[in-house]
């Protein structure tokens, strides 16, 4: 299995990060992973088909927001918190705070 490409820290672009986080599904994925830590791709219930979910994960990875680790046939995602904080101090926290304050985080919730 080919290892997924991750941009180097210095290559993470603000416009790419903001674009990736502009989609409600991607923002929800980042919020859940940020709260819970590393998650297996596909374990977060979202109302999209598998191919669309793969697209969302790829967009987040290519923007430099997620790190995807491959273990056998499984893929695990975690937030590149340190890289994002070095590149854009406070950005992710501010976006997630605004996301919670807006009430949008209540629209998609994990079962259980």
Automatic annotation (TrEMBL):
An example molecular function term from Gene Ontology annotations: DNA-binding transcription factor activity
SUPFAM superfamilies for this protein: Winged helix' DNA-binding domain (SSF46785)
Alphabetized PROSITE patterns for the sequence: HTH_ARSR_2 (PS50987)
Keywords from the UniProt entry: DNA-binding, Transcription, Transcription regulation
Span of domain HTH arsR-type: 6-99
Cross-referenced PANTHER family: TRANSCRIPTIONAL REGULATOR, ARSR FAMILY (PTHR33154), TRANSCRIPTIONAL REGULATORY PROTEIN (PTHR33154:SF12)
This protein's name: ArsR family transcriptional regulator
């Amino acid at each position: 299995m080919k290892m997924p490409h991750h941009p180097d820290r210095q290559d993470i672009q603000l416009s790419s990060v903001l674009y990736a986080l502009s989609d409600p599904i991607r923002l929800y994925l980042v919020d859940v992973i940020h709260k819970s830590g590393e998650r297996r791709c596909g374990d977060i219930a979202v109302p999209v088909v598998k191919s669309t979910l793969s697209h969302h994960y790829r967009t987040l990875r290519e923007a430099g927001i997620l790190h995807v680790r491959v273990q056998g046939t499984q893929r695990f995602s975690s937030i590149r918190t340190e890289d994002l904080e070095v590149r854009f101090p406070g950005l992710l926290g501010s976006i997630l705070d605004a996301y919670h304050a807006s009430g949008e985080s209540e629209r998609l919730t994990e079962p259980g």
